[in-house]
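pipeline/complex-builder :: batch 7 item 3
reading input block
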Amino acid sequence: MRRLRMGMIGGGPGSFIGPVHRIAAELDREIELVAGVFSSDAGRSRAAGESYRIDPARAYSDLPAMLAAEKARGDGIDFVTIVSPNHHHLPAARAALEAGIPVMSDKPATATLAEAKELAGIVRRAGLPYALTYTYSGYPLVREARARIAAGALGVIRKVVVEYPQGWLSGAAEGKQAEWRVDPARAGEGGCIGDIGVHAFQLAEFVTGLRVTELLADLGTVVPGRLLDDDCSVLLRFENGARGVLLASQIEVGELNGLRIRAYGDKGGLVWRQEEPNTLTLHSLDGGTEIVRAGTVLLGPDAAARTRTPGGHPEGYLEAFANLYRDFAGLLRGAPAPLLPGIEDGLRGMAFIATAVAASRDRAGWVPFDI
Amino acid sequence: MRRLRMGMIGGGPGSFIGPVHRIAAELDREIELVAGVFSSDAGRSRAAGESYRIDPARAYSDLPAMLAAEKARGDGIDFVTIVSPNHHHLPAARAALEAGIPVMSDKPATATLAEAKELAGIVRRAGLPYALTYTYSGYPLVREARARIAAGALGVIRKVVVEYPQGWLSGAAEGKQAEWRVDPARAGEGGCIGDIGVHAFQLAEFVTGLRVTELLADLGTVVPGRLLDDDCSVLLRFENGARGVLLASQIEVGELNGLRIRAYGDKGGLVWRQEEPNTLTLHSLDGGTEIVRAGTVLLGPDAAARTRTPGGHPEGYLEAFANLYRDFAGLLRGAPAPLLPGIEDGLRGMAFIATAVAASRDRAGWVPFDI
Amino acid sequence: MRRLRMGMIGGGPGSFIGPVHRIAAELDREIELVAGVFSSDAGRSRAAGESYRIDPARAYSDLPAMLAAEKARGDGIDFVTIVSPNHHHLPAARAALEAGIPVMSDKPATATLAEAKELAGIVRRAGLPYALTYTYSGYPLVREARARIAAGALGVIRKVVVEYPQGWLSGAAEGKQAEWRVDPARAGEGGCIGDIGVHAFQLAEFVTGLRVTELLADLGTVVPGRLLDDDCSVLLRFENGARGVLLASQIEVGELNGLRIRAYGDKGGLVWRQEEPNTLTLHSLDGGTEIVRAGTVLLGPDAAARTRTPGGHPEGYLEAFANLYRDFAGLLRGAPAPLLPGIEDGLRGMAFIATAVAASRDRAGWVPFDI
Amino acid sequence: MRRLRMGMIGGGPGSFIGPVHRIAAELDREIELVAGVFSSDAGRSRAAGESYRIDPARAYSDLPAMLAAEKARGDGIDFVTIVSPNHHHLPAARAALEAGIPVMSDKPATATLAEAKELAGIVRRAGLPYALTYTYSGYPLVREARARIAAGALGVIRKVVVEYPQGWLSGAAEGKQAEWRVDPARAGEGGCIGDIGVHAFQLAEFVTGLRVTELLADLGTVVPGRLLDDDCSVLLRFENGARGVLLASQIEVGELNGLRIRAYGDKGGLVWRQEEPNTLTLHSLDGGTEIVRAGTVLLGPDAAARTRTPGGHPEGYLEAFANLYRDFAGLLRGAPAPLLPGIEDGLRGMAFIATAVAASRDRAGWVPFDI
């Protein structure tokens, strides 16, 4: 069974996430990067292609050109992955899907909710695989957390706290990674809420299996002169009445990537932390605490199947990312991938951003959330 | 210099906090429990007196009786400590102060804000020492956190997150400790917000040296049939514009007493956690992280003076509690105790509870906070 | 039931352990410090007596004088506690026991094994309570660890690793605490091995319920000019054939008081760490890990009875110490205290020190250990 | 610049380490697996080739055949990687090197010291790159630890403690991974000492930059019926007189892969733990503790260059492994790789195993260590 061939959109010189997608896609040897529009500047795209060690002829600087040229080859790309800033997501996905090419996309789905709705229509009409790299849902112990909750280990969920503290935008936003994230023209309507708040939102729904139905948002811009939010507090209600808190910040000095989720039901509680991803803590009503560790026989089938090393040999962010590509490769080959985030998750995420931004701006208090 | 003589109000059979106050008060041998109205039931008070090993004649069942009898003795009590449920705080403090006896009181100051205002007048008129055992402000590393922030280590504070998760009221509230806390007649208008939320509030103001000026509260009652709140989310604004989040819950299964405070400024951040109280984590803008440990020479004078053991010999809750009694003993002997919580802190705490309860009930959104 | 009256031997100005014994003894209000020979210098003893706030007339500077004077009082001391450097232990204990006064003593029992043997005879002849404050065996979760092993939770013990790293003697040994510990005339034949290695030894036997029968010792003197050992590696065999490792050091820079014990059997393993004393980690063969936390209902009766606060309200070193005094008070009142270390443990400890010192000096390899 | 082409020896169906090498080698896209003798059984080798998605024609079952066939191709392999059990290492490396093919090999170098000496001669004569995957030396923060010590951050090293606890061989050794490790015919003369003790040994020398010159070994066989050691305690002396302890065990139930190293000098100390590999703890003499985190600007150039994600996005075992392949690829392209373990390290490792096994068997006490 041959490797699937991937074309990358974005990921040019200086990109953080381009190489991450490349590593993740190839980790299980089901996928191979063979082409890309790494930059709209031909020289830069060529340089990136060299750094990825692909055939120089397949480092394009124009998406329609790549789609056409690859279609013409016997060994052309099987799908594209979109890793450029948010405002590129819609046009890139549209072009690919309309050319009959499946799409893997970095999150969030688009730059605005309106774009996401448009994209949803395109995906529906195309009838092609489309998925989103909500990375954190690829961690084995996040899968385990979801499975345990689904199996009733916590009883009825009553409370969810999801936090995503970072500190790297505490000062002026300098450098390629920072600049576009604080620029409404490229990031879209959300700053912190769109960059990491949406991860927290997706994780909360993913782990609990519950949908948010109401929210109250307080987004702030702490760093002087910044145009988008950089510190977010959002209160949540879930469909079953459970209460929730979602905190995200990019000005909490010293926090690196401290995503953490805690869920509590009437029978138990659980805690997972991204910076120590290989353990899951489970609490029971009698005060007992169990630590579930990756690589042990205590993992359920979903988590076990997404673990590549024995217990105690830490896996991390790249492996979690790779788990999403593994699911996507399966999807392309015809296997179901029910936990792989798709356009519906993309729509929910964009609606979350739009709703939170508007509700906060209007000091609207509790507002319904639906999409 | 003789030990100060303490009379206890409350703390009868089955009390958790009575023995804690006794141990804390006596730990440094500056204070001695000699009398008490441990219960209004004479037999129960006598039994408690025996368990405390005090002179049986000084185990009273009536507060006026104790105040009169002790006044008549040459070796009568120097102050009372009030450890009974909230609704007793005002009448007990009033009786003592009006009899010329200083008061140490468990928090919160009273059961309602109106009572607190009345008490403030009484304290002012009496001109006698009155203090509140906001225990967590007695931890050496909380003092250190406060001192570091006051010295500018974090720069201008921008964000404060204080969380106080517990899980012990996840089920039916059974037992002496639980029952009164969920009963409005004894606890007052706040449940979780008054029991632990107010600790978190005091800690946030104490550590940062900043006052809350605005808040948005969402208090919930999760356990069916409960009359008071048991899960609280409160957003804060501080006087300098800093943003804040205060979370408190008593239904987060498996959480024991997970009070944690994090503060972030434009130059640094810090984290302190009550369940590992002997370390303080400091973050700097360059990603550097310093762990300050109790008992090392790195502690400032305030924290160092409140540490009884060398580094690595853990101190805990009882010692933190004792630090408040040490400050109070100093106050009685004429020394200043600027960091010991007093009636102003009591008023602010009760105003916090009242404001949060009302704002949440009315879904009022952001409301000003002042007292 | 009145409080037992304690006389202290040692604990003068600058003492660390004197105040610790005082706090620990009095914590449960079963015992009261009323007298002491805090120093052989009358002025210093008086100053210490003042700092302890005892009757100035009962701050003696001569042990026979104290024993005689206290005997003559109606409210004389019920026992003495010996907290002076090691070389005082034997003469002080002998004088007290021969005067009919029970003895609580800091560890190790004496300065040399020969002294310990002499003391054992005295204790036996006196027929009076004698106990040793091997503090760490007073921690509730150490009691829990012992109980779990005794109940077979780990199966047959195969391996024990006990480590006691400190760093405070990495440089010149300055200050009251350091000076006597590095002086053979006061500390005895062991340096680090006698100060902390013996704690590790006692803890290993206490937790496992197994006796060491053979050892191989490598003691080193790392700091130039020092006369006693400051870094110890000892291999152990237990009576059932289990293998053991005991490490103790006072030159591991940055380590505060990192005592840790791990025990492994054919069915499970456990880990306890003194610097986070309120949790006990249990491992099972299937890779499962349980965290047992102080103050939860999961504790057995022995540990539960030695816990004063609810879960999440940390107890520490002073409370563990107090648990030994609680046991000792019980003993004086006629209750059994089977887990309180006594003269047999003292003898074993001194034999451990002597055997390790000799075996290391002689590069003797494995030597039998018995007493 | 094209990818280097790798042929694998070993790594057939059921192999744990084969896929790990494949992922690690390819992670940076400098290397590509193209061929292999995955098994000496043709069907099994073909099946493995399919699982790796390589050209079926290049899944060989005979090493000479692979070497010949690949040499004949224009796109033949650039090097082999040896991932089979220890007893295959020498013959496989010999065949490759004699065919002019560079070798990457799993550790330990060979099954016996005699073999290692033979191999050293072969490598020297061949004049071709040969390296060993001592994985743990590839972790960025291990590199940082080494760099800090080399720069004098700890002063003169006095003490090193390296521990490698595992528990997975606590019971009967079942399954492909376990079976060969407990079989002298395949593992060689060391069990636990050769499987993981040698990792600890290499890490200690790597991090400190100091060579072991003397050792005392106590290897035990705990599980009944086992032929090789499964629990090891080794005392060390380093060339500068520093004292050391090396512990390794495979019967410590519940320990997964708890490799930990601590080094202490006269100015500071450091701690690194493999299961939380993205932090390094540094202690200074004043009790200060600094946590150095991967992905921050505080890392030196060597560690920074071996980090692929920003701080807080955990990297783990596979990425550490990949760092060794990155160094090896550089070596093949002509760049220096001074920290990549080579045949000298292999010889030292085998001498360590042989010396420890013999010294323990003979109860020889301290023995010199040299190679």
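note: Residues 89 and 110 of chain B are 5 Å apart (CA to CA).
queue -> next item
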